[in-house]
Write a structure and sequence with these properties.
alpha/beta; Aminopeptidase; Alpha-Beta Plaits; 6-stranded mixed sheet; 4-stranded mixed sheet; 13 helices; 19 strands
């Protein structure tokens, strides 16, 4: 029945451009949204399965069904993956607004999960599945909103361009291609960064617009040795040497850092966070050199990345036979680098901390990049705040820095101001994005639809 209503709305807008269709409600959009999300979760867009193009074609079909011309939708194949671009034509008043999302997800092994990661499951008020939090819900609700606006007959003042990448979680080749093609834009809204924070009691604490993000770099540690028969062990063992290097990295903490963005964010969150953590936030915001406050924040997985560069081992490989001494051992060290700190300086620090000439350190491809912060203009801040205040009156909207990296870094490097406006709220550490049993509060789906509709109509008028 919803399809018939939507079809009538589209027909009316085509028949008489001067007459606009009645605006759809979020409740009306929910059945279609949940079906799209179910389908998106079931398409395993993890690396190596060549399924991102399948999802891109599915989303393209949905956009066409809502009135987008096929000529305004493009799928850009790159290797086994692809990017999706959809242009929503406006009146031509200024440069376009880019809408960024990604279609791929981190690999999930079904045997390790309690529920099938590639099946959308709702239990106890949560939606479970790979991509529910990162970031198929945000992607689907954004696509649904563009469809909804098209059916309503909305004409933006400037073009809106969806730029959905296909390998944000890995090589970011599609991201680089999109940034090279679509860098002449007013600004970019990224649904994969920023977002709202709930307290332990489930009440909203604040909403962050991502204005800066850490750089991302992978370093490969390599140790080689002569090898030999396992019955004749020697002190020069590649695996043991690598293990020692890894223990040195594990025991090292990069210096504490802060910026006006992170201090503003922690001050606002601290005022609404009870207990020692909230006190530490407020104290650190006022006195970034306070070692006790920094230690409390560093002990919390949700905030350790907000106050320093972090490096952690993520992959390990060594040896070539069960009965032979190892000739080679390697480990990947993933670093999230605080803005303003160079990648070269992090590599130099790792070399110093390991302090072993037997361990070589090289940068893994693709070549990492550093991206500048994006000061948030009043019109973006006001549009986000006005939209959120309809759901949470008086909620504070603040600039923030993401501890992770996103597609925005390549667009920022290309000169496009980028603002992370993830429509979802979550408790700190509750979503398990990239981890086992990823989940999202089911109540966030209608909230996301309201968010995108409100923000886009306010910014694009």
């Amino acid at each position: 029945m919803l399809r018939l209503v939507y079809g009538s709305c589209l027909a009316a807008s085509l028949a008489a451009a001067s007459l606009s269709c009645q605006a759809e409600t979020t409740a009306q959009a929910m059945p279609e949204t949940m079906q799209m999300l179910k389908t998106a979760i079931e398409i395993p867009t993890e690396e190596g399965k060549a399924q991102v193009p399948v999802l891109a074609r599915y989303l393209a079909q949905q956009l066409e069904s809502a009135g987008f011309a096929a000529s305004d939708i493009q799928i850009i194949p790159i290797g086994e993956t692809a990017a999706l671009v959809a242009r929503y034509h406006g009146k031509g008043h200024g440069k376009p607004i880019l809408l960024s999302a990604h279609m791929d997800v981190v690999t999930a092994r079904p045997a390790d999960w309690v529920r099938d990661p590639f099946k959308l499951t709702e239990e106890n008020g949560y939606l479970y599945g790979r991509g529910t939090a990162d970031m198929k819900t945000s992607l689907v609700t954004l696509v649904e909103t563009l469809m909804r606006l098209k059916r309503e007959g909305f004409v933006p003042a400037r073009d809106l361009i969806l730029v959905a990448s296909g390998d944000e979680e890995t090589a970011m080749a599609t991201t680089r291609e999109l940034a090279s093609r679509y860098h002449d834009a007013a600004f970019l809204l990224n649904g994969d960064s920023g977002g709202g924070v709930y307290g332990a009691d489930g009440k909203p604490l604040a909403y962050e617009i991502q204005a800066a993000e850490k750089s991302y770099a992978d370093f490969l540690l390599t140790v080689t040795s002569a090898g030999g028969h396992s019955s004749e062990p020697t002190p020069d063992n590649a695996i043991y040497n690598l293990a020692t290097a890894l223990k040195h990295i594990q025991g090292y903490a990069f210096p504490v850092e802060s910026s006006s963005i992170t201090r503003t964010s922690l001050k606002a969150l601290g005022a609404r966070t009870p207990g020692p953590l909230g006190e530490a936030m407020k104290q650190f915001a006022a006195h970034p050199d306070d070692a006790a406050a920094a230690a409390t924040l560093s002990a919390d997985r949700a905030y350790v990345g907000k106050i320093r560069t972090t490096c952690v081992a993520t992959e390990l490989n060594g040896g070539h036979a069960l009965n032979a001494l190892p000739q080679r051992a390697t480990a990947n060290i993933n670093c999230r680098i605080f803005p303003g700190e160079s990648i070269a300086s992090v590599q130099a620090t790792l070399t110093r901390v390991i302090n072993d000439p037997k361990v070589s350190i090289s940068i893994q491809p693709p070549t990492p990049v550093e991206s500048p912060a994006s000061p948030i203009p009043a019109k973006v801040m006001n549009a986000v705040a006005a939209t959120l205040h309809q759901r949470f009156p008086g909620l504070e909207v603040i600039p923030g820095m993401d501890a992770g990296a996103s597609d925005s870094m390549y667009f920022r490097r290309a000169g496009v101001p980028c603002f992370g406006v993830n429509p979802l709220f979550a408790k700190a550490g509750d979503s398990f994005a990239h981890g086992l049993n990823e989940k999202l509060l089911a109540s966030e789906v209608p909230g996301a639809l309201d968010f995108w509709h409100g923000v886009l109509t306010r910014l694009a008028r």
